[in-house]
Structure formats: C-alpha cells, structure tokens
Amino acid sequence: MAMKRAFISFDYDHDDELRDALMGQAKNPKSPFTIADWSVKEPFEGNWQAKVRGRMRRTDLTIVICGEHTHTARGVGVELAITQEERNPYFLLWGRPRGNCTKPAKAHSSDKIYEWTWENLKNLIAGAR
Q1: Which of 4, 17, 77, 82 is the most buried (most CB within 10 A)?
Q2: Torsion of the alpha carbons at 17, 32, 94 and 114, rounded to the nearest 10
Q3: Nearest 5°: CA angle at 105, between 84 and 19?
Q4: In tens digits, what is the pLDDT along the chain, a chain of 129 residues?
C-alpha cells in the first residue's frame, strides 16, 4: 500500500496532546501514513481559509481528532467543511478514551466517530480513496 499523507484537524485549545500522540503513531516504521502538521495557534493573516484549503489539497485525507469540545472548535468545523467541499476522504477519531467526545459542527449525522486503535487507523487509511 502506498504511503498516504494526512491532514490533522483538532481542537488546538484542548487537544494538542492528542495531535502529538497521532504524530507519534505516524512515526512507526509500519505506519501507512505521514502527517502534514500545519497546526497554528494564531489565525493566518488575510484569507486563512484559502491557505488551509491549499494545504489540504496537498494531502490524501483528513483525520479529525474528536475531543470533548470539538463541537465548539470553529477551526475544526471550517477544516471539515473544506474537506467536504473538496470531496476528500476523512474520518473522525474518538480522542478521549474516558471522555465524552463530540463531532465537529460540520460533521454529517451519518459520520461515525471511530475508536482510536492501531488497527482502525490502518484500515481507515487504507480505505481512504
């Protein structure tokens, strides 16, 4: 299977350690994906959404890490909307094993939040087309 490049979307204010954990998994020698980490705390100047769209176009899929406040994270909602507009594959990961994770505001009601396991990651990434 060809290595896929993933864009990560997450709530920067509450879940940056989850991003770090996923980046660590991407470094596994058997990982089927790499991470395009363009996370920024401060908003881009000017039309930041166009800049994010350009970055997302250079990836194969989007991984949305869901935490307890994801539904209120404006940036995550915008990134997911861009992913959907671009018709790029994406999936949602349950980031907090003991928390009540929420979907981004722009998620479809049919979008499932998948348990964050190594097997799920490999299978979801393999299925992203």
Answers
A1: 82
A2: 180
A3: 80
A4: 578 999 999 999 999 999 999 999 999 888 988 987 666 555 656 788 888 899 899 999 999 999 999 999 998 999 999 999 999 999 999 999 888 999 999 999 999 999 999 999 999 998 886
Two tokens at 108?
A: 């479809």
Element at 4 (helix H, strand E): strand 4-9
Return the residue matching tokens 């909307």: 81
CA geometry: angle at 108 spanning 68 and 90, to 5°?
80
Angle of CA points 53, 43, 33, to nearest 5°: 45
The structure's pTM equals 0.91
Residue 81 to residue 127: CA distance in whole angstroms: 20
Cα of 33 vs its chain's centroid, Å: 13
